[in-house]
Write a structure and sequence with these properties.
Elements lengths: L9 E5 L3 H9 L6 E6 L12 H4 L4 E4 L3 H13 L4 E3 L8 H10 L3 E4 L5 H17 L6 E8 L9 H14 L5 E5 L5 E9 L2 E9 L3 H14 L4 E3 L1 H7 L3
Parallel strand pairs: 1-2, 1-3, 3-4, 4-5, 5-10, 6-7
Antiparallel strand pairs: 6-8, 8-9
């Protein structure tokens, strides 16, 4: 799929699933022109990604499958275009591809969740965990719920929350994953003591929240080089 330029940054979308289609629908509202959309049929193992296929894109947004993401990211970096990747479940390859982006003077932005609210939620959960670390009567637990079709468990967001909380608490934080219905994504952080409980919840009501955050990251990434995540984006926003 190609589209004529309408002004504003040009974005190519890799992935024609629900998230990819949502990105295409929302991009014009955010001042970006969708110049290409590459689906799975046209892209076996990243071989469909090159400068010509990206059609003059200033930035790429990728939402596909864990088995496809690493090849898509590598091909985009080698094509010399900044990429925002929202696929999770492939992060064993992430250190290598961060190094590749830096070595090629490219740009890679990854996040397990592109909701700005989730990024702030994670900071809140980490600070709460750090405050409660000396109080051993509080146990910590994460419960994450997603739609039945989600392939990875725990979710990338839950894994990120777990890692940050474990570092703050200096003890294990178990994760319970629930896959049911069409839930876009709910994450609960629970601190439980014998006589009281603290519960923090982030609930995504619409998958457009992830598309909106990915497009915000895409605009931010243009003109930058290096490997980035949501903390970098948040830290750059005016306070």
């Amino acid at each position: 799929m190609t589209a004529p330029a309408r002004g504003g940054p040009r974005v190519a979308v890799i992935g024609d699933g629900k998230m990819g289609r949502t990105i295409v629908q929302l991009a014009p509202e955010r001042g970006l022109t969708v110049c290409a959309m590459i689906g799975a049929r046209a892209n076996d193992g990243g071989r469909g990604i090159n400068r010509a296929a990206l059609n003059g894109a200033d930035v790429v947004v990728e939402f596909t499958e864990p088995s496809a993401a690493a090849a898509n990211v590598e091909a985009t970096i080698r094509a010399g275009v900044p990429i925002v990747c929202g696929t999770t479940g492939w992060y064993d390859d992430l250190p290598r591809l961060r190094e590749l982006a830096i070595a090629m003077n490219g740009a890679l932005f990854t996040a397990p969740n592109f909701s700005v609210g989730v990024a702030l939620f994670a900071r809140t959960a980490e600070r709460a965990a750090r405050a409660l670390a000396p109080i051993t009567t509080f146990d910590a637990h994460i419960v994450e719920t997603h739609h039945a079709a989600k392939k990875d468990a725990p979710s990338g967001t839950a894994a990120m929350l777990r890692d940050r909380m474990q570092s703050a608490l200096e003890r294990d934080v178990p994760v319970t994953s629930v896959r049911t219905g069409s839930v876009p994504g709910t994450h609960e952080v629970i601190f439980d003591a014998p006589f009281e409980q603290i519960r923090l919840t982030h609930e995504a009501r619409d998958r457009r929240v992830f598309a909106d955050g990915a497009l915000l990251a895409a605009r931010w990434l243009i003109g930058r080089t290096g490997a980035f995540g949501m903390n970098d984006l948040l830290d750059s926003l005016p306070t």
